[in-house]
Amino acid sequence: MRLLRSLFKCVVALAGLPLAAQGLPAPVEAALTGARIPREALAVVVTELGAGRRPRLSHRASVPVNPASVAKLATSLAALELLGPAFIWTTPVYVEGEVRDGTLHGNLYIKGQGDPKLVAERIWLLLRRVQGLGIHSIRGDIVLDRGSFVVPTTQPGAFDGEPLRPYNAAPDALLLNFKSLSLTFTPLAGQVQVHMEPTLAGVQWPAAVAQAAGECRDWRADLKADFSDPLRVRFAGAYAAACGERSWPVAYADPGGFAARALAGTWQQMGGSLSGQVREGSVPARLAPAFEMQSAPLTEIVRDINKYSNNVMAQQLFLTLSLQRKGVGSLEGSRELMRQWWSDRFGSGEMPTFDNGSGLSRHERITAQQLAGLLQAAWASPLMPELMSSLPVTGVDGTLRRLRGKAVGIAHLKTGSLRDVSAVAGYVLGNSGRRYVLVAIANHPQAAAARPAIEALIEWVARDNQP
Length: 467
What we know:
Layout: H1 2-15, H2 26-35, E1 42-48, E2 55-59, H3 72-83, E3 90-100, E4 103-111, H4 120-132, E5 137-138, E6 142-145, E7 180-188, E8 191-197, E9 208-212, H5 219-223, E10 225-226, E11 234-235, E12 238-240, E13 246-251, H6 258-269, E14 273-274, E15 278-280, E16 291-294, H7 298-307, H8 311-326, H9 331-346, H10 368-379, H11 384-388, E17 411-418, E18 421-429, E19 435-443, H12 451-462
Parallel strand pairs: 4-5, 4-6, 5-14, 6-15, 9-12
Antiparallel strand pairs: 1-2, 1-19, 3-4, 3-16, 7-8, 7-13, 8-9, 10-11, 17-18, 18-19
Helix pairs in contact: 2-12, 3-7, 3-8, 4-6, 8-9
């Protein structure tokens, strides 16, 4: 029987038939068995790059599955093709009234247009530009126009019960610093200094926390932080000096009020004064922009989205598709554009289910075969370098920097992870010099346990010059 099996393998190889008929590779099967994950939980495609190639491996390839953050691949390629790699976001600023002796007698308007990376330092630069107009005092209001996006209001913890995780931040036409704080803890002179960035007007936090002796363990839990009151951050615990300096990104407890507090706090910190308030409103049609803040080009934004799997940036990009084509950014408008783009690009057959562009969804569905086709098309596209360079490199950077073993540096793969999803999709360089598309998605209540099997699959793909 062993001899017959060996002869059959030789015949299959010589005939060029897909090895899918042999089942999953033995190391993958072993890892799944060890994790008690059924093989039916995994969808896989491995195929050499190039038109007309038969798959090296195909397992449940046509079954629609939840891809988690691997869905960002479709958003990224669609945006690169529909918007262009050099696309930039602008945030126009308008001045209403006279400027006399450093004081604006009127309102300052800021119109959000979906910039995904209007972070703390760029908020400072925007307000510095305002000061460059000779404005240091505003006898009026700062008005925030967020009308470019129309999105439903959601609770920050609605998806998974983790409201303080920055990845749960909702999209916003005027998204400032991902609606998140960065708390930095620095041991110094017997106590631990606390720094908050950006400064939020009206929010109190301790300048220092108690310093603890001993090893650095679970320092966040040891702080016993209380973020329940949006106006007062508290720490009932202590911070071990052995931890050195650490930063903690936290979603603000009142996301709807974040932009107003961040702008007012930064303006005050810069020495500016405001007699009115920071409020929401619309820019009067008669006004022309005094200046516009420009974002980094789309290629850099896509790199941040995919390397670090930034959900809210991906959702901003998704909504920007309909904003640019329809004049307003909406989920249904962007879903319609994605369906049309997919039909034009890949035909009008079975269509993936698009939701919000990030994969932070229970409704998104796509097959491993469809993802493999997308990656094949991307490889043949002039935009291949932009997309491929945005993907994490195994064991080197992004969401794959901690991967170890024999797969270090051999693959560019987008990762996906939810409570019940573990996935990778991208490109693997084989030992032979051939390059392969790899898609592997596990949907299972214990999907995290399938990661060793997926890592074994990456290594198996790379060993293409071995039996």
